[in-house]
Hints:
single chain; mainly alpha; Four Helix Bundle (Hemerythrin (Met), subunit A); 2 domains; 12 helices; globular
Amino acid sequence: MTASRPAHRITGPLRTWYDMHEALSHEVTALAEMSAHLAAGELGEFAQRFSYFDQELRTHSEVEDGIIFPAIAQRGGAIAPELVAEHQEEQLRVYALGTAILHAKATRDGRSLSALAPLSGALRDSLRNHLQLEEAEALSQVDDLFTTDEQAELLRAIMSSLPADPHLQPWVAAALTPEHLEARLRNMAASLNHTALVGVLTQIHDGVDVATWAAVRSRVPDLAALVAGDMTNRGNRAG
């Protein structure tokens, strides 16, 4: 399936879901570009980057199938079976690329390296089409089905249901434009309690490069200051 009409975009707290979509699209595109000119010495970096992408894509799809889509359906919304089926198809493409990476690591020959490019390209194309369809067919229903407070509650339920992942927030932050990152952090500040918000900001601070954190400090200095305050408080308590 492909999206055929412009999608209404979420305006409430669950608009953070677009951040994940942008990060996934950014990363799968980067993997496809990297695979097109991959040298043997770059295979380890490529494999590590793919491994984290694999983890985040799986978690993202599981949250949609296990939490968001059932919540939409419970409110009377419609979830096309094709969306769930495409999640499963994506996992098969990820599996195919993962096994090809292992083969390339074992053989270290040009043919096995070259095999990664078409698999990465197919994954990129299918995932980007899927994300567009999902935004048009599923996420476009959210504002009509959930109030702002209900969206915030659902977002908190999602975050509390997932295991701790200190790399997720930096990974998403690094993939977003400064404008989009500012919007993401303002949205989270309006949706999370203080402790959770400071935790997210601290993970970003600890996990991104200097340029990305400089963008945070420039765009949302009041939120960036929460990290410095949290670090100071920890130091005082330790003393």
